[in-house]
């Protein structure tokens, strides 16, 4: 089993260690288990951090040996990287694009095209960093989400060989260079995790320390560094090595059990898997855990296919989520994992091994592989530029319904409105029916005000009014904002504009916020709701409160058949039980009604009256999809609610 790996290791001046392949096996297994069964292993995503340490150790060992023997060339290094990384990546990118072409709706395929570009250019981490935001698509429906870690690695290996080359050229201490990089990067990590969690998760600056841990271990194993530390790594005490291996495994197990996705990762928590991995590597192949557990033939086999398994597993699970419009059934997830293992083994045997054994024309092979990656990236970019190709045969059948899934925004109007009011940041947002003219009606609120702006604008424009929408977070006077909640920080300015603009005679409040009085925070928000209404009334404004639309208990994509998938059917009748909706909002509605009793002049409008009957709340009405996700109206839903709003106002003689 190990002979070919031994040959490869020998060619790269490294003795083969089966236990490190076993570590790879553990790393990929916990990642796959986490993605397929997240409740079973909450911290399984730390497998990626184990990979970082292993990679830093192995690649840095090779680099330092080559620099030390003056045999390093950038061409050889990157040719090896290409032959290692590109073959499986090309297969996965091509297969993902092919299935996306057949099965995905235009907005989904457009985003996939963008992520193919990111994967091919090894900047997925940067793309994902900037995608995290208010209208972001759920991570589970991004088939190439996992390529962020590949981006981190390859960005590191662009900079790291250059730093090492400079160190060897000017006879600098490689150990201190590595330690300095580790300390600075770790400082960026722990310093940024509280205020910039997304950037800290995805940035090479805050992740490089994990690869540097492996690089530091490589330094010590090659005799670079303080004598005491070198001796500690090279020591042969059996008991010490056994204890170190047990400690390493214990740290990794602790990480899997204790770490949670929303608790500020990497941060200090990432020390558990990274130091655990470092301890296992340092313990050496003869330590008890390494020899008995990590060198187990089955675990080593998983380690051998770990890279293609990592690449294949997530697109399969993600596509299952996309097609099922929600968490797939257990049997589907199990089938996806089994398929990923089979594809990984086939990729390893039929693609990776033949290419990596190719020595005579290695440079030419690397160039061809690089060109294929560039071609796939270019194709992904073209798909993105073409908006997901809505004219595809497999898509035309349900074209109108699919358009409802796309966020509609009048960007020119928004830009003109922001200019008129002097808004300079993305957190200050507005729309205005008649630019340059005084507004007479103000709609204020979050995205649950935005998704009714088209229908209300149509109504008020027909009546000779000029509606302006001021985007907010929680649209309440005095609502607290954290140092990182920039939308909430911009909200007081929006409320002040609605409050002090003399031409505005009517203010409409709409928000996703659900009121409750069971907590101190909830009672504070209720009081701020009361204060906000009173402030507008005292300013001589007419006030209307818009109750929120029902939040569906399903993804509206489930209402549309995917014509390109033979087994696809509409997963449901596109309704939810009205009793479930009533239970979800009963406490909120009671609080709002209680507050509004104090202000009899405030009017209300409840869209649910027109979206629900005695039995169901509907995601589709008259064959038009009302939602673009489970809680935001589509453009058609916006216009529908606006039309019902107009009917109700006319009936009330307003």
Topology at a glance:
Elements: H1 3-11, H2 18-36, H3 47-68, H4 74-103, H5 106-120, H6 124-131, H7 148-169, H8 174-192, H9 197-202, H10 208-221, H11 227-234, H12 238-258, H13 271-283, H14 288-294, H15 297-304, H16 306-324, H17 330-357, H18 362-385, H19 393-396, H20 399-403, H21 411-421, E1 430-432, E2 441-445, H22 447-450, H23 453-462, E3 467-471, H24 486-500, E4 506-510, H25 520-538, E5 542-546, E6 575-577, H26 578-596, E7 603-605, H27 608-611, E8 616-618, E9 620-621, E10 624-625, H28 635-651
Parallel strand pairs: 2-3, 2-4, 4-5, 5-7
Antiparallel strand pairs: 1-3, 6-8, 9-10
Helix pairs in contact: 2-3, 2-14, 2-15, 2-16, 3-7, 3-10, 3-13, 4-5, 4-16, 4-17, 4-18, 5-6, 5-18, 6-7, 8-10, 10-13, 12-13, 16-17, 23-28
What Rg do the Cα atoms give? 29 Å
| Strand arrangement in the largest pleated sheet | 1-3-2-4-5-7
How much strand content do the residues show? Answer: 5-15%
Q: Characterize the largest beta sheet: strand count, sense, and whether it forms a barrel.
A: 6 strands, mixed
Report the principal-axis shape: elongated
- The first-to-last residue Cα distance is 81 Å
Structural class: mainly alpha
* Tally of alpha and pi helices: 28
Mean pLDDT over all positions: 92
Helix content: 55-70%
Residue ranges: pLDDT <50 for 5 or more in a row? 6-11
DSSP summary, beta strand count: 10
Question: Please, could you describe this protein's structure?
Answer:
This protein has 654 residues and is mainly α. Helix content is 61%, strand content 6%. It contains 28 helices and 10 strands. Helix 5 packs antiparallel against helix 18, helix 10 runs parallel beside helix 13 and helix 23 packs across helix 28. The longest helix has 30 residues. The radius of gyration is 29 Å and the shape is elongated. The termini are far apart. 44% of the residues are buried.
């Amino acid at each position: 089993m190990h002979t070919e790996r031994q040959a490869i290791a020998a060619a790269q001046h490294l003795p083969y260690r089966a236990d490190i392949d076993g570590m790879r096996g553990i790393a990929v297994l916990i990642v796959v288990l986490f993605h397929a069964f997240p409740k079973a292993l909450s911290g399984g995503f730390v497998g990626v951090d184990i990979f970082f340490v292993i990679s830093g150790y192995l690649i840095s060992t090779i680099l330092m040996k080559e620099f030390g023997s003056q045999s390093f060339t950038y061409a050889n290094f990157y040719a090896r990287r290409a032959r290692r990384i590109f073959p499986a990546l090309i297969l996965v990118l091509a297969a993902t694009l092919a299935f996306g072409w057949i099965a995905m709706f235009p907005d989904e395929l457009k985003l996939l095209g963008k992520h193919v570009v990111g994967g091919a250019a090894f900047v997925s981490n940067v793309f994902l960093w900037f995608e995290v935001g208010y209208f972001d698509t759920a991570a589970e429906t991004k088939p190439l989400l996992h390529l962020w870690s590949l981006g981190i690695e390859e960005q590191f290996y662009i900079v790291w060989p250059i730093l090492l080359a400079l160190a060897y050229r000017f006879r600098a201490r490689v150990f201190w260079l590595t330690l300095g990089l580790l300390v600075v990067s770790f400082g960026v990590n722990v310093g940024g995790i509280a205020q910039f969690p997304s950037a800290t998760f995805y940035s090479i600056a805050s992740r490089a320390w994990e690869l540097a841990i492996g690089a530091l271990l490589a330094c010590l194993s090659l005799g670079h560094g303080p004598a005491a530390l070198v001796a500690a790594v090279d020591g042969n005490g059996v008991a010490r090595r056994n204890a170190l291996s047990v400690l390493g495994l214990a740290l990794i197990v602790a990480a899997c059990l204790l770490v949670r996705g929303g608790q500020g990762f990497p941060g200090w928590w990432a020390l558990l898997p990274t130091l655990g991995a470092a301890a296992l590597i340092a313990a050496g192949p003869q330590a008890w855990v390494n020899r008995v557990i990590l060198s187990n033939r089955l675990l080593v086999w998983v380690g051998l296919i770990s890279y293609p398994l990592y690449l294949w597993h997530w697109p399969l699970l993600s596509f299952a989520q996309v097609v099922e419009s929600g968490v797939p059934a257990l049997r589907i997830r199990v089938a996806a994992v089994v398929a990923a293992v089979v594809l990984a083994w086939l990729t390893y045997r039929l693609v990776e091994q033949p290419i990596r054994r190719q020595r005579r024309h290695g440079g030419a092979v690397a160039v061809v592989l690089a060109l294929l990656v560039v071609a796939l990236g270019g194709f992904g970019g073209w798909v993105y530029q073409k908006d997901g190709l809505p004219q595809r045969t497999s898509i035309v059948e349900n074209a109108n319904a699919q358009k409802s899934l796309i966020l509609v925004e009048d960007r020119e109007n928004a830009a003109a409105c922001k200019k008129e009011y002097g808004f300079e940041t993305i957190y200050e947002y507005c729309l205005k029916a008649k630019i340059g003219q005084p507004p007479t009606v103000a709609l204020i609120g979050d995205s649950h005000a935005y998704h009714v702006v088209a229908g209300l604008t149509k109504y008020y424009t027909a009546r000779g009014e000029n509606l302006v929408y001021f985007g907010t977070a929680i649209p309440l006077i005095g609502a607290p904002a954290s140092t990182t909640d920039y939308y909430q920080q911009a909200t007081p300015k929006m409320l002040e504009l609605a409050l002090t603009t003399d031409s505005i005679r009517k203010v409409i409040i709409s928000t996703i916020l659900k009121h409750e009085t069971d907590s101190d925070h909830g009672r504070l928000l209720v009081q701020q709701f009361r204060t906000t209404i009173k402030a507008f009334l005292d300013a001589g404004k007419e006030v209307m409160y818009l109750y929120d639309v029902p939040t569906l208990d399903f993804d509206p994509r489930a209402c549309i058949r995917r014509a390109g998938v033979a087994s696809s059917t509409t997963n449901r009748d596109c309704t939810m039980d009205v009793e479930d909706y009533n239970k979800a909002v009963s406490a909120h509605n009671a609080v709002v009604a209680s507050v509004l009793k104090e202000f009899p002049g405030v009017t209300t409008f409840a869209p649910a009256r027109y979206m629900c009957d005695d039995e169901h709340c509907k995601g589709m009405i008259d064959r038009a999809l009302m939602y673009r996700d489970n809680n935001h109206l589509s453009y058609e839903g916006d216009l529908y609610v606006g039309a019902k709003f107009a009917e109700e106002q006319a009936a009330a003689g307003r």
